[in-house]
Write a structure and sequence with these properties.
This protein has helices at 3-25, 34-46, 57-62, 68-106. The chain is mainly α.
Amino acid sequence: MTKTKKKVLILLIIATLIAVIPLLTLKGAEFGGSDDAGSKVVAEITGTEYEPWFTPVMENWIGGELPGEIESLLFCLQTGIGVGVIAFFMGRFVERNKIENHKNKSK
């Protein structure tokens, strides 16, 4: 087996372990968002139930709460747009660097 194949095999095993170990060790764990945790802390500090100051814009448009799948979709879309913008500017900076280095070498 070549060195590259060994590395790929080891990385695949590590990736599989990263995916499987949490499934086996976190049975029955409850996962909540930061909004839920923040609401609980505010309720503990003030002694009253937390009341939001406003309703989300999308909820006003559709007249109710968004389904979880739609929230996840919008979050992923927002993440993708953000990554695209960051990658665009990183690419611009890299290309600018290459052009400037090429100009400096040709002088």
